[in-house]
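Tip: read the tokens left to right.
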């Protein structure tokens, strides 16, 4: 279930003694009792909300981002996960009052994996630490998640093309969104948005295998594959502060995202991936064999045996690829069932706060 809304104005967890100290500390911090929201806030009481901010060299903006989210969600817990910043990001975030943890493995995907593993909450609000996302929209996104009974609300970036410096990124964004629709379904219009509000059962059922900026793509594929209910809300997208360049490398990250597309297609729909390879291989075999067949029909002779052998071999390879696709598709279906069962094993967000259903 995916739709687009109008844009507004701009319990405790068991201890694991074998864990590393930093990881154990993060779990301990996240195991505090759920926050109680005021009755007039529009949010269910006893709802635990965590704002998680992956950061890398965001010294100039992180303090204002923390302040904005604290003003928007005063009862939420704020976490900053620093990805080995070389500036003062960590110190600034600590002075701003956020709980700060480190992830030494470089890459946004590694940070997101750590955040989702170490933080426990009913609702997760994820945004970047560069100040480009509107923190004041967070309460509305959380209410949308609960009221519409979905598991992820994506804040799509309505002004992503306003900055001339993002022209190449904007073109790539449109191209990859179209490609995503053709490969996985047209469930999202902005698969690269980093502003997402998610339920606990989405977060804890998400494997988070990517290492870099392709993590948002993996999150979108996870939702599309399991038919998880989602919504999109159009939000304004701000400019980065002067002297704080984007961490995205156009060509390097573009190729990594394309590689992720192909990998996820192979894993989620092997019959499509291997079927395409089988079809392409069979087409080459047919093109090579066509003149030989014409000559044979006309003369009864096969003049080019090496070409005939090559065409035959390619057709055998095509049959093998198609067979592999069918077998692996059955395995992928079984894995999809297991993921769905894990997802359904956790209660919906705010389920205990909705009260009895009407008879």
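Filled-in amino acids:
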């Amino acid at each position: 279930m995916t739709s687009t809304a109008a844009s507004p104005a701009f319990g405790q967890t068991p201890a694991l003694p074998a864990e590393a100290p930093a990881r154990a500390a993060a779990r301990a911090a996240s195991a505090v009792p759920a926050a109680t929201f005021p009755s007039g806030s529009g949010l269910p009481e006893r709802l635990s909300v965590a704002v998680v901010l992956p950061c890398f060299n965001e010294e100039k903006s992180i303090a204002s981002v923390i302040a904005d989210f604290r003003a928007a969600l005063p009862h939420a817990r704020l976490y900053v996960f620093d990805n080995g910043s070389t500036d003062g990001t960590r110190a600034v975030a600590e002075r701003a009052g956020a709980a700060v943890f480190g992830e030494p493995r470089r890459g946004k995907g590694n940070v997101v994996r750590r955040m989702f593993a170490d933080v426990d909450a009913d609702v997760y609000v994820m945004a970047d630490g560069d100040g480009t996302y509107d923190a004041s929209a967070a309460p509305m996104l959380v209410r949308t998640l609960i009221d519409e009974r979905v598991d992820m609300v994506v804040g799509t970036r309505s002004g992503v093309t306003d900055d001339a410096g993002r022209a190449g990124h904007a073109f790539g964004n449109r191209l990859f969104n179209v490609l995503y629709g053709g490969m996985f379904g047209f469930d999202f219009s902005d698969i690269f948005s980093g502003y997402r509000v998610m339920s606990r059962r989405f977060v804890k059922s998400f494997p988070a295998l990517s290492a870099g900026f392709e993590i948002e793509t993996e999150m979108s594929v996870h939702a599309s594959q399991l038919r998880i209910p989602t919504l999109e809300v159009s939000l304004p997208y701000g400019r980065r502060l002067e002297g704080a360049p984007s961490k995205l490398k156009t060509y390097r990250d573009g190729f990594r995202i394309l590689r992720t597309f192909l990998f996820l297609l192979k894993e989620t729909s092997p019959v499509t991936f291997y079927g395409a390879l089988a079809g392409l291989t069979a087409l080459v075999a047919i093109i090579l064999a066509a003149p030989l067949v014409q000559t044979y029909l006309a003369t009864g002779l096969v003049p080019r045996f090496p070409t005939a052998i090559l065409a035959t071999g390619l057709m055998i390879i095509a049959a093998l690829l198609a067979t592999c696709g069918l077998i692996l598709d059955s395995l992928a279906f079984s894995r999809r069932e297991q993921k769905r069962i894990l997802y359904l094993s956790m209660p919906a967000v705010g389920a205990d706060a909705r009260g009895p259903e009407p008879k």
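Strands lie at 4-5, 49-55, 77-82, 99-102, 123-126, 152-157, 196-199, 230-235. The chain has two domains: 4-265, 269-344.
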